Amino acid sequence: MPAVVSELPDAQLRHLMDHYEDAVSAKRRRTAIGAAILVAAIVAAAWMGEVDPAKFADNFWRFPSYFVSIMPTLSLGTLWADLAEWLWGLKRWTGLLLDTLLIAYVGTLIGAIAGFVLCFLASANLVRSRTMVFVTRRFLEICRTVPELVFALVFVLAFGLGPLPGVLAIAIHTTGALGKLFAEVVENIDDEPIDGVVASGGNWVEMVRFAVVPQVLSNFVSYALLRFEINVRGAAVMGFVGAGGIGQDLIEAVRKFYYTDVSAILMLIIIAVMTIDYGTEAVRHRLIGRESR
Questions:
Q1: Which of 87, 169, 181, 222 has the fewest CB atoms found within 10 Å of its own CB?
Q2: Does the model's pTM come out above 0.85?
Q3: Could you count the other beta carbons within 10 Å of the beta carbon of residue 150?
Q4: Mapping DSSP to helix (H, G, I), strand (E, B) and coil, where does residue 190 land?
C-alpha cells in the first residue's frame, strides 16, 4: 500500500490527505456534539429530578445502614432458636411465594400465547397490508410501554385485591414485549421455505405453520423463558399495589419497620429467582445449542 501511495501524483495525494483530514475532523465534531448533548441531557435530568449531590453524600450511609439493620441476630449457641424466630412466618411466606410464581407463570403463558399470535401480523415480510402491520405494532407498543405496576393498579381498582390484577398486568406487558421480540425473529427468517409453501398452493395460515414456525420456535421458547425470569421479579413487586403474591407482606414489613421480616422475605425471593434463573438459563442454552447444530 505505501508503494501505491508513493506512486500517486502530488496533487492527488494532497487531495486524499485533505479528504482524510476532513473526515477525521467531521467525526471529531460529531463526537463532541454528541458528548455535549449527553452532558446537557444529564444536567437537565438532574435539574428536573432535583438531584442534590450534597444531600446524596450526606445520606448515602443510610443505604448500607438499612441492610445492616434488617439482618437477624444469629448466635452459634442459640442458632436454631434464632433461625426459628427469624423465619417464624416461613409457612405463610412460602405459600405467598408460590402464589407469586403462579402469577408470573400464568401471566407469562397468556402473554406468550398472545404475542405468538400477534407477532405474525406485525411482521412486514408476512403481511402485505401495511395498515395491519402498523396497527399491530402500535398495539404491542402500548402494551409494553405502560408499566406493569400501572396496569396492576388499574386492575386492582377494577377487580379488587388478589392475584387476578397481577396476572392481567403481567400478561398485557408480556404480550407487548414478546410480540416485538417474536416479530423481529420472524422478519429475519429464511424466505425460501415461505416461497416453497406459497408455490405449492398453501394459504397464509399454512405458510406460517409449515414455513415460519419451524424456523422460529426454539427462539420463541428461549425468549419466553427469559421473560418468565423477568416476570417472577415483577410479580414479587405486584403486591405493593395489592395485586397478590409475597409483595403484600414485603411492603407491609417495610412500612411497619419489621426489619427481620424484610430480610427473611427478601432472602426467599432471591433464592426463588436464582433457582428459576439457573433452570431457565440451562434450558435456553440447550435450545440455542440444538438450533446451532
A1: 87
A2: no
A3: 13
A4: coil
> Directed axis angle between helix 213-238 and helix 90-121, to 10°?
140
Structure-block grid coordinates of residue 55 = 444531600
* Angle at the Cα of 85 from the Cα atoms of 79 and 91, rounded to 5 degrees: 115
Asked if 120 and 208 touch (Cβ cutoff 8 Å), the reply is yes
List of E strands, 99-209: none
CA 157-160-161 angle, 5° bins: 115
Instruction: Kindly report the number of other CB atoms within 10 A of residue 221's CB atom.
Output: 14
Extract the runs of DSSP E, i.e. beta strands, from 111-188.
none
d(CA 57, CA 227): 36
- CA–CA dist 112, 105 (Å, integer): 10
pLDDT, tens digit, 9 for 90 and up, residues 115-169: 999 999 999 999 989 999 999 999 999 999 988 999 999 999 999 888 999 999 9
What is the C-alpha to C-alpha distance for residues 80 and 72, in angstroms, rounded to an integer? 12
Instruction: Summarize pLDDT for 16-47 with one digit per residue, the tens.
Output: 777 888 888 889 999 999 999 999 999 998 88
Q: Is residue 140 within 8 Å of residue 118, measured between CB atoms?
A: yes
- Long-range (24+ apart) CB contacts under 8 A made by 30-37 are none
